[in-house]
Amino acid sequence: MRQYLTGLVMACAGVCAPAAAQDVWDEPGGIETHATYEAAGVLAPEADEPFLYLLRGGFEANFVLGNGAEVGLRTSGGLEKDHPARAGFSGLTGPSEPAAGPVGAFSGLARGPGEEDTGARARLETGYIYIDGGYGELRAGLDDGVAARFFEGAPTLFRQAGLVNPALDPAGRVIARTDHDLTGPSLKVSYASPRILGVRAGVSLTPEANAGGLDRDPVRSLAGTAQPDLENAVEVAVNVSRRLPRSGVRLRAAAAYSEADAASAALPGAYDKVETWSAGGSVEFSSLAFGLSYLDSNNGLTAPGGDYAALSAGLRVTFGKIDAGLEYSDAEDENIRADSQAFGFSLGRNFGENLRLVGGWQRIDTRYTGNSLPLAPRTRDRTDGIVFEITLSG
Question: What is the pTM of this model?
Answer without folding.
Answer: 0.90
